[in-house]
Structure formats: structure tokens, C-alpha cells
Amino acid sequence: MDFELSEAQQQIKEEVRRFAENEIRPVAAEYDRREEAPLELIEKGAEMGLTGAQIPIEYGGAGYSTVDVALVIEELYAADPGIAGSILGTAFGSEAILEFGTEEQKQRWLPDLATGDAICGSAISEPHAGSDVASISTRAEADGDEWVVNGNKMWITNGSVDDFDAERLYRDAKITQIYEGTTEIQKNIIAR
Hints:
Blueprint: H1 7-24, H2 28-34, H3 39-47, H4 66-79, H5 81-88, H6 94-100, H7 103-115, E1 120-123, E2 139-143, E3 146-150, E4 156-157, E5 164-171, E6 185-191
Parallel strand pairs: 1-5, 2-5
Antiparallel strand pairs: 1-4, 2-3, 5-6
Helix pairs in contact: 1-4, 3-5, 4-5
């Protein structure tokens, strides 16, 4: 088995390192001081395909493999973890949409996440459960053509800048296995 990076992977690593060193590192401390979302850097990262690195090409993403994405993560986080998390976190929730979303949901949400034109929030944490997805109690019940959501979330990742939320909640007591060992959890997408 060959553990060397391919030529394409080496190119990804070098391009992302150059971006991180030239664009992120020089301004990281200033963003921290101002406690401000690095929207300009997110936009630049999106232009490079970094916001949708793991999203398949057919949905507008870069279609990177797990190893490719790991290389992106390493290089961005080496420059500044906060900004790296902001760039990569814009598509937080895209994996759940890919895995569990309908084709209509994939077509609607993934292209905008891939290009950085949308930011996804994720509503997981609850007062009694923290981020333990097996212990969440927020529920959604069908009411005609709509869903009624009841429960409390205490933290929404990207909540102050997101365009929509991918929310984990219980839905109509139907058993839907989302993660190994958890039941009755549904991943919903809630537009703003």
C-alpha cells in the first residue's frame, strides 16, 4: 500500500498552505480581537472550493476524498483554528444532507453550501443533553402540510450567520436511524 500523497493531493496541500499563510495568518489576531466572523476569508475560501470540499461535484462541490479534506483541514488549522473552523464550518450539516436528505433537498441546499453562497447552522445542543444526540428531546410533528417543532436548543453552530439550520429532533415517533445506536432522530432543514 502506498502512503505517499498523489500529485493532485500535493497540489491541494500546497495551494491551501499558500492561502493559509498569505490570507489567514496575517489577519487572524485582528479577527480574534474584533470577535468578528471572517466573512471575507470565507468568501476567498469558497472561491478555492474549500467551503464545499467534501460535497460531490454533481452538487457543485470539489468532490474531495476524505484524505483530500484532511489535507485542507491540516493546512487551514495550522494557520488559525478559529478562521479554519469558520471556513470549513459553513457547510456544517452538509454530510447529513448528503446521507439522509431527499434529492430535492440536496439540489436545493448543497450547491449554495459548496459555493459559499449559504451558511448552514446546526441545532443540536439542548439544555439537558448538551451535544449528546441520543438524548435530545426536541420534537417535530406533522400538522397538515407543515411541521410543528417543540423544544429548546441552547446553541446553534453558525446561528448568528447562517442561512438555514440542519436540526436534529424527534419526528412523529418514527424510527429513523441516523447515527449508529440512536433511534427516532430526524435531520430536518429549517430555512430562515
